[in-house]
Design goal:
Helix 1 (about 10-15) crosses helix 5 and helix 4 crosses helix 5 (about 100-119). The protein is α/β, with parallel strands linked by helices. The longest helix is centred in the C-terminal third of the chain and has 17 residues, at about 100-119. The protein is globular and about 30 Å long. The chain has one domain: Sugar-phosphate isomerase, RpiB/LacA/LacB (Ribose 5-phosphate Isomerase B, Chain: A, 3-Layer(aba) Sandwich). It has helices spanning about 10-15, 30-40, 55-65, 80-90, 100-119; strands at about 1-5, 25-30, 45-50, 70-75, 95-100. Strands 2-1-3-5-4 form a five-stranded parallel β-sheet, sandwiched between helices. The protein starts with a strand and ends with a helix. About 45% of the residues lie in helices and about 20% in strands. It has five helices and five strands, in the order βαβαβαβαβα. It comes from Aeromicrobium piscarium. This is DUF2620 family protein.
Length: about 120
């Protein structure tokens, strides 16, 4: 699985993901524009974007390129594992959340993405 981390806390997201990755999985740091192009071309599988609110800036470009049906924001709320699973199962490939939720959301989101890839 190939993931690109972007937004204000992109380094923190990548750092939180690295210990979770399996063989062949990668996380790179990039911009939302990088992610849009790479998602459209199939070069990466998922984008995790962060901003202060988890809404607008974390996904603005991705919503424009991919459409709202392939993007999901968790905003300021701390979602349950079930809510994250549902967002992944709905076919979203770009996810936005707030910078103060990185340590909570990244492991749960990884579990859901890993399960989706294994399905």
């Amino acid at each position: 699985m190939k993931i690109i981390a972007g937004g204000v806390a992109k380094s923190e997201v990548a750092d939180a993901l690295r210990p979770l990755l399996g063989d062949g999985d990668t996380v790179t740091i990039g911009t939302d524009m990088d992610a849009a192009v790479q998602l459209q071309s199939g070069a990466v599988d998922f984008y995790l974007g962060t901003c202060h609110t988890g809404a607008g800036a974390s996904l603005g470009v991705l919503i424009g390129f991919l459409g709202s049906q392939r993007t999901h924001t968790f905003g300021r709320s701390l979602p349950s594992q079930e809510q994250i699973d549902a967002a992944v199962e709905a076919g979203n490939v770009a996810f936005g959340f707030s910078i103060d939720q990185v340590q909570d959301i990244v492991p749960m989101l990884w579990r859901a993405l890993e399960a989706r890839q294994g399905a």
